[in-house]
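Archive entry. Fields below.
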Amino acid sequence: MHELPITVRVNGSPREAVVEPRLLLVHLLRDVFGLTGTHIGCDTTSCGACTVLVDGRPVKSCTMFAVQADDLDVMTIEGVADGERLHPLQQGFYEEHGLQCGFCTPGMILAAMPLLEEPAAVDDHAVRRAISGNLCRCTGYDNIVRAIQWGLRAASQADGPRTPPAEPQAL
Amino acid sequence: MYPPSFEYHVATSFADATQLLVDLEGAKLLAGGCSLIPLMKFRLAQPPHLVDLNRIPGARYVIEDDGVLRIGALTRESEVERSAVVLRRYPILAEVSAVIADPLVRNMGTIGGNLAHGDPANDHPAAMLALGAELLVQGREGMRTIPCAAFFLDLFETALQPDEVVVEIRIPAPAAGSGAAYVKFERQVGDFAIAGAAVNLRLADGRIRDAAISLTNAGPVPSRMAAAEDALNGSTGDPGTLEAAARLAAAGCEPWTDLRGSVTVKRQLAGVAVKRAVTAALARARGGPHA
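PREDICTED_STRUCTURE:
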């Protein structure tokens, strides 16, 4: 079997590798590029721990070959923050205690990214739908939904989370 | 979990894909990979060559013209789900796409792959059968169309020849007074159906005409439930007729017992799915195709 040279734009920077065609995208990210924030949970397209954005769309990187990402844009959890400043969704997980063990968190955050396209239009049902392919085994879904809503509120403000977002509604 | 080794080939067109299928012994086509890659991980498939269709230009589209909805085979489920023309004119298709796997899988999964895999547990086959869809396929001799009614031959077996690849799905535009709906029962988000029903019908002078009922995961192939259709045709869709149609569909399907349920449970749920899908299709027919 022939190894193939590929170039993947990972978090904005082109990264090159020579890979076996059978190498999965998640293994390219973790084992070749050392980006271990993308997790492997079930390895069978069920849990969403391996979620990354490919050309802006969240997909499960355990069910895509690295060669399929050649010449495409991939965003992992390592590319979400702006330097030292957390992304609003990350900040939301901090503020709302959106994680216990944290294993599912990178996938949850990337799965929630499309909600940022229209953050004002997102209700809890839409959040739950967006993360319906992501499993949390600490059973923390309520806080995860609150965390994502916090992030969406923060992101919908002009200059992001530096300005404190509106207080969440009392429960 | 590493899949077995294979040689990777990028198809530049459907004709190129066909040529690669002819030239490469044992080659399989890679579209969304949602079924193929897990099969390879479990060593249920070990193709020596994969032909990647994802880089074929212009293979993702949803267009209605000349009374036909044309969907490119590589169109992602998430694109079908959000297509304006689908939501406005073919709501059953958005209903189907929206219950396939989960949102992340739907960003990869293609409508062509969902059909060509020949899995009766997939959701599009029953809907396409009820809608009277045709598949445009490319082979080495050129293009041909295959009606969905002649496409699904057996479990994972379709009418596609070894050199053929699905190019486009063609669905006739809804007739005046028609309505269609899909109802799926699943244990949890992302699972295949315990049972599902697709219904397409037309109302004329308050009576049901041209009823088409087909089921998901209730036999080796998606098939029309003729006896249930006969019960509906000519009726007003009254509760008694719906019960009869549900009973006939439950009796006419061929599910098997597995982790999703016993034959008894699956027949029962198939019947309920038929009843609910007929009710939803009737509501759409009464409200016009935009309901």
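CURATOR_NOTE: The interface with chain A takes residues 1-8, 30, 33-34, 37-38, 40-41, 50, 52, 54, 78, 101-105, 107-108, 189-190 of chain B (CB under 8 Å).
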